[in-house]
């Protein structure tokens, strides 16, 4: 199935019909609770947590 779905989604995106950028939102790891709330409320489809860099 991914062999059919991914190329089709890519075609839709290239045609401007699939807004990946509106489905994905990044959050600092510290904002994990906000990411969960936004997902549950339907404000974001795919929350992506970014770990903090420590030097």
Q: Would you write up a description of this structure?
A:
The structure is a single chain. The longest helix is centred in the first third of the chain and has 13 residues, at 2-14. With 55 residues, the chain is α+β, with helices and mostly antiparallel strands. The chain has a domain at 18-55. The termini are far apart. It has a two-stranded parallel ribbon with strand order 1-2. The protein contains three helices and two strands, in the order ααβαβ. It has helices at residues 2-14, 20-23, 32-40; strands spanning 24-28, 46-50.
Given the structure, what is the number of helices? 3
Q: In what order do the strands lie side by side in the largest sheet?
A: 1-2
Q: Helix coverage percent of residues?
A: 40-55%
Q: Report the average pLDDT across residues.
A: 91
* Main pleated-sheet profile: 2 strands, parallel
Number of strands: 2
Which regions contain 5 or more consecutive residues with pLDDT less than 50?
A: none
Distance between the termini: 42 Å
Order of helices and strands: HHEHE
Radius of gyration equals: 14 Å
Strand content: 15-25%
What multimeric state do the chains show?
A: single chain
Structural class: alpha+beta
Shape: elongated
Protein name: Aryl-alcohol dehydrogenase
Which descriptors would you attach to this protein?
alpha+beta; 3 helices; 55 residues; elongated
